[in-house]
Amino acid sequence: MSVRVRYAPSPTGLQHIGGIRTALFNYFFARASKGTFILRIEDTDRERSTPEALDDLYATLEWLGIDYDEGPEKDGGYGPYVQSEREALYKEKASELVSAGRAYPCFCSAERLEHVRAEQKAAKKNIGYDRHCRDIPAADAEARIAAGEAHVIRLKVPLEGKTVFDDILLGQTGRKNKDINPDPVILKTDGFPTYHLANVVDDHMMGITHIMRAQEWIPSGPLHVLLYEAFDWKPPAYCHLPMVMGKDGQKLSKRHGSTAVSDFRKAGYLPEALMNFVSLLGWGYDDSREFFSKDDLCELFSLDKINKSPAVFDYRKLDWFNGQYIRMKDPVELKALLLPILIADGIIADPPTDEEKPIFDGAFPIIRERLKLLNDVSPMLRFLFVDPGTGELEDAVPKKSTPAQAAEALRAGLELLQNAPDVPDVHDEAACAVWDEERDGVFRARAEAEEWKIGAMLQPLRLAVTASKVSPPLFPAIRLLGIPESIKRTERLIEALESQG
Ligand code: GLU
Ligand code: ZN
User: Fold this and answer.
1) Which of 171, 227, 292, 300 maximizes the CB count within 10 A of its CB?
2) Distance (Å, rounded) from C-alpha 488 to C-alpha 478?
3) Which domains can be identified in the chain, with CATH numbers?
């Protein structure tokens, strides 16, 4: 039997971590078992489905590089299955159930149902449909339908017994039939199916072999199994995925930080890093291996390595993965990702000028080692392209030191800069490394001669040049900025410190 699985999102909001975890696990499972991966848009809830959510879904899948294997013809290729385009099928299937006596039309008005609910509430009884129309003789019901009376179709849930299903991960679960929603609506007045009917019909018609989805769907399991039974179909295998928690053990939510994939994307995460990280939310190959490319996962993923226990979403670990993937990225590709960020942040021109290009090229190998997020590139390199001013003066003054002492250290630094040899071409990496190292030696020697700590000398200078306490290493920063501009900024800071007294 060839594996056929699907990702079946409802386009009612942004794609979040839990959703793409489901998508990825299904996708990897399909690829690893040489099976078929289907995308199915479950948009039968017309009030809650939005075009924005659909756009976000497509953009997210494309960004992650998840493709699907079949679907109805569209623009010369094929598109995903979309439930709102398959209405006729669900209607037909609902009437099949009515003919078989497994479902029935209900003519109750909204007012009547409201009245029933109010009475149940007053009597402190369970709230639910009272099965008022369950035993209307078929001929009567047909006549009322023929006369145009508004109605829904409800499933006949057995009054006795229990409905169970086997979950690959969790074993057997189930519920007494009397505790299942009494006769849920499967087809609405407007002829649109409810989620349960469309989901079950499609999973069967599409030959889905395994349903892998979030645990929040477990309560729907028995009802779905009843639908399969009503149709005389065999349900697929179920595998409900472990919960994703924040570090505090609560279900992952916005309280913990971003959960929308688009937020991660905008913040400068690489898709390969997010994919690797998400693949480990409830799955692991062995106890030690952490790095998995998409190709690895498409080969190695298997159901027997999914964990039962909840997965913890550790934002710091994701950041770590992202830094690792940035450093593994091909330099040309990485540059092509960073430049547009600098342009969008207004730091360099579009296209970059002939002056800006070599500065960026020279800075690239240095920041490459330090980036956690792609977007960190702007704060890191801003000082090279935009005059940052003097920054916070107090940052220029090392602990247990005074502004006057900082100014004195800067004067010494200024003198060393004035005597420094010309900076080499940025593309001559060896010469640049020598230049940086020599400056380091010269500055250290001076600090020693003055009996200053090296930090007392370099901290004010770093602030002068970059206006920030965190920046690329100082001497490459000075070299890239150029000696004249570094001198200008140093003199400016000396003045500011001295005027402070
Ligand atoms: N449309 C459901 C959702 O949005 C799919 C549940 C399932 O996979 O069966 O999660
Ligand atoms: Zn009714």
Assistant:
1) 227
2) 12
3) 4-84+244-315 (3.40.50.620), 86-241 (3.40.50.620), 329-385 (1.10.8.70), 393-498 (1.10.10.350)
